[in-house]
Each structure stands twice: as structure tokens, then as C-alpha cells.
């Protein structure tokens, strides 16, 4: 059994992408023990495949790279779409590229399963057409929240099952030394971006830090997208904040996903704007307060009964809402209940997966 895991890999700077890679392997190995896995993602591109829509269409016509032969060697493609990229909010080139890969794998007569993920939103007509075609040609489709399931149904392809995020299928990490508040600050949102007012986000982060210090809490900064040439990484802003607060904050830059999960599991509470920083916490039974910049946060967490999702808006208002959640009693017990509920949801995928290659 040879499985292509698309849009995730174990070396990505974004630890959320590594979650998808490891979670996919752990889940699918329960169905196909001993399966061989290969990963395809930005930064881990096979020679036979190009990353531009025009290049993909050209290769489909000319076959110079041998793309279709390369696809046909697999028994299954597990399409993760990076967890949240089955949408046009990150631009049409990304959506076109991922959609064309899906189309051509299907044409290579390889079954495609859509991993649990966010589906939508699709604001453009072309985006909806591509999504409808991909969904209709998928052998199995999982959503990780009810809003995504509704989006798939609206495109004419109801999902087989609404479950939750792949992170809840990971093995439990070994805890590091104890930490109080672990704070993840997003490099994506710290700079001008298409999601939120970055000045409001910065103001909110500073307000949260200042109030936590006043409350006597200790804060450890945790980058969840590691350092890389890409501006979308969390390390520079974390280092900036350490300098700005003159040593009042600790900083731990994890070496890998296991390292990050061990630190998160040791915390009393996690505050994060990277969704998988928060999901890594809940998957280890640690409460997390999410600072949400898109539609992907609330439906997923609400489905698990976790209400501590704060939309990033006015900086002061965001900070007040985050701190109100942090100070709430019984957060730890509630987080452990969510962890158990989510693991049960992931187990429900197992009986369906075997039918992908039968």
C-alpha cells in the first residue's frame, strides 16, 4: 500500500502542517499497517510535479516531467489541503494549483480521500466550480466542522462524516518542565495582512501581556511557525517581544512538533492565534484561548463544546475577552472533556477508510 499525503509534510516550518502529516500517518496506519507514505507540499515538491496552474496544465498535455506516471504509482492520495486551504481566501493561484493536482490524480485512476479539513468559504464563481469538481471526484470526504459540511453539501457533495482535526489522532507527548501561560503570537497577523487589522492585533497582544504580568502570571512565548525566509513565521516577532519587555517574557523555540507538543502539554493555559497551537493544546487536555482571524476557528471548536474563541477585532475588546477566558474557573477539566470527545470522533473515521481502496 503506497499513500501520497498531499499538502503536508514533516519538515514544514509551520508546525500545523506537520500535525497534518503525522496525524495522517497515524490515522491511516491503523487501517493499513506497514503502508508506505510519501509527502507532497510546498517545500517538498516532487520533480515530476510543478506548482503553477499553467505549468500543471502544460505538463498534463506534454507529459515531459512524467507527472501522470508518478501519480499512478500510488494506491491512494490523502488530500489534506493544509487543513484550511480548500478555499479561495489565500488567493486563487493556491486554490487552482491544489484543485488541479486533485483532478489529475483522479485522472490517473488513483482514489482520492479528502482528509478532515475546513471546506470553504468560496467567494468566487471559479473557486466554487473547482471545489464542486474536486468534491464530486473524491472517493471519501471528511469535514472537521459543521460549517464545512454545509459548504460541501451546498456544492452538491455531502460529506461522509463530520469529525474534527487530525491533531486529535496524535499520540500524547512527553511533557516538558511546567509552564504557566504559553503565548503564541502570529507573525502572519503581526504585519499587514488580508485577514485582520494588524495594528489592532498588535495592540491586543500588548494589552494581554501587560495584564498577565500585572496578574503575576509567567509567560512563555512559543512560535508555532518556525523561522524561515518566509515573512510568515513567528520567531522574529517573538524575539522582538522578548526585547521589548526586557526579559519579563520567556521564549522557547521548539526544534520540532514533538518538542512543541511537549511544551504545550506542560502549560496551565495556551493563548494562540495559530489555530494548531490551540488545537495542540486541547489535544493534550490543556485549555486554549484562540484569537481567531478566520471562519475556520469557531465552527471546529464549537463542535467540540469549546467556546473560548475570540475574534480579533478592536485591540482592547479582544484583550478583555481573552483575559476573561483565561481567568475562568474549571478550564482544565473542560479541556480534558473536549480531548476525550474529539478522540472519539476521530475513531469514527476508521470503519470508512478501508473502503477507499477496496
TrEMBL record:
<dbReference type="GO" id="GO:0016740">
    <property type="term" value="F:transferase activity"/>
</dbReference>
<dbReference type="InterPro" id="IPR007345">
    <property type="entry name" value="Polysacch_pyruvyl_Trfase"/>
</dbReference>
<protein>
    <submittedName>
        <fullName>Polysaccharide pyruvyl transferase family protein</fullName>
    </submittedName>
</protein>
<feature type="domain" description="Polysaccharide pyruvyl transferase">
    <location>
        <begin position="83"/>
        <end position="294"/>
    </location>
</feature>
<dbReference type="Pfam" id="PF04230">
    <property type="entry name" value="PS_pyruv_trans"/>
</dbReference>
<keyword id="KW-0808">Transferase</keyword>
Amino acid at each position: 500500500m503506497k499513500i501520497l499525503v498531499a499538502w503536508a509534510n514533516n519538515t514544514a516550518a509551520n508546525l500545523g502542517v506537520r500535525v497534518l502529516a503525522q496525524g495522517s500517518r497515524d490515522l491511516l496506519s491503523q487501517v493499513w499497517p506497514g503502508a508506505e507514505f510519501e509527502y507532497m507540499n510546498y517545500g517538498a515538491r516532487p520533480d515530476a510535479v510543478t506548482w503553477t496552474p499553467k505549468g500543471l496544465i502544460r505538463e498534463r498535455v506534454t507529459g515531459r516531467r512524467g507527472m501522470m506516471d508518478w501519480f499512478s504509482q500510488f494506491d491512494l492520495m490523502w488530500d489534506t489541503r493544509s487543513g484550511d486551504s480548500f478555499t479561495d481566501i489565500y488567493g486563487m493561484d493556491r486554490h487552482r494549483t491544489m484543485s488541479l493536482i486533485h483532478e489529475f490524480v483522479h485522472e490517473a485512476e488513483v482514489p482520492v480521500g479528502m482528509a478532515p479539513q475546513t471546506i470553504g468559504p468560496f467567494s468566487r464563481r471559479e473557486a466554487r466550480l473547482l471545489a464542486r469538481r474536486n468534491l464530486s471526484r473524491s472517493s471519501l470526504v471528511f469535514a472537521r466542522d459543521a460549517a464545512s459540511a454545509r459548504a460541501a453539501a451546498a456544492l452538491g457533495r455531502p460529506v461522509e462524516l463530520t469529525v474534527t482535526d487530525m491533531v486529535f489522532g496524535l499520540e500524547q507527548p512527553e511533557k516538558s518542565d511546567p509552564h504557566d501561560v504559553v503565548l503564541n503570537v502570529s507573525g502572519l497577523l503581526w504585519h499587514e495582512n488580508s485577514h485582520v487589522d494588524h495594528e489592532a492585533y498588535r495592540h491586543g497582544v500588548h494589552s494581554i501581556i501587560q495584564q498577565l504580568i500585572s496578574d503575576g502570571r509567567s509567560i512563555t512565548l512559543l512560535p508555532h511557525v518556525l523561522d524561515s525566509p518566509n515573512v510568515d513565521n513567528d520567531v522574529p516577532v517573538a524575539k522582538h517581544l522578548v526585547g521589548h519587555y526586557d526579559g519579563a517574557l520567556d521564549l522557547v523555540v521548539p526544534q520540532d512538533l514533538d518538542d512543541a507538543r511537549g511544551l504545550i502539554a506542560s502549560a496551565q493555559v495556551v493563548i494562540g492565534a495559530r489555530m494548531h497551537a490551540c488545537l495542540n493544546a486541547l489535544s493534550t487536555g490543556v485549555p486554549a484561548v484562540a484569537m481567531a482571524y478566520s471562519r475556520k476557528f469557531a465552527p471546529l471548536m464549537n463542535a467540540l463544546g469549546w467556546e473560548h474563541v475570540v475574534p480579533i477585532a478592536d485591540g482592547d475588546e479582544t484583550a478583555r475577552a481573552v483575559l476573561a477566558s483565561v481567568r475562568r474557573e474549571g478550564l482544565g477539566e473542560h479541556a480534558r472533556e473536549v480531548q476525550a470527545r474529539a478522540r472519539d470522533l476521530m475513531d469514527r473515521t476508521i470503519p470508512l477508510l478501508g473502503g477507499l481502496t477496496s
